[in-house]
Amino acid sequence: MTAGLKTIIALSFVLAIGFLLIILSSALWQNYFPLLVAATYVIAPLPNWICSRAASHDDFMESSGNGIVDFGRFFTGFLVVMGIALPALLAHCGIIVFQAMVMSIFGGLLIYGTIISFTMFFQEEQDF
């Protein structure tokens, strides 16, 4: 029980640091475009989760079509890459400064990594 509690506390600490970096990247330079990265990383795991739930799991046929699962992984990957590319594009265009770009990308990766770590540590095993 304590290992689960320690894991939750550590993950919440890392998540708070990620959100703090994104908020500071916006607030320090009075430009709130880097907040789009937080939204991108928060919704990034949703396509993977929805598509994995929608896929039919058949015990008898292992080679069933995984098109829905592949689409979910593709769209999740697209959102993660967009979370990195959007601040780089904004910095390249001069809308945000370079330091805000670095803080936004690093904070977003911390947020996404925390979400993925939480799902990996606390997923339930299915018994048939």
Automatic annotation (TrEMBL):
> Mind telling me which residue stretches traverse the membrane in this protein?
7-26, 71-90, 96-122
Protein location: Membrane
Keywords recorded for this protein, A-Z: Membrane, Transmembrane, Transmembrane helix
Topology with respect to the bilayer: Multi-pass membrane protein
Q: Which GO CC terms are listed, alphabetically?
A: Vps55/Vps68 complex
Pfam families cross-referenced by the UniProt entry: Vps55
* Family from the record: Belongs to the OB-RGRP/VPS55 family.
Protein name in the entry:
Vacuolar protein sorting 55 superfamily
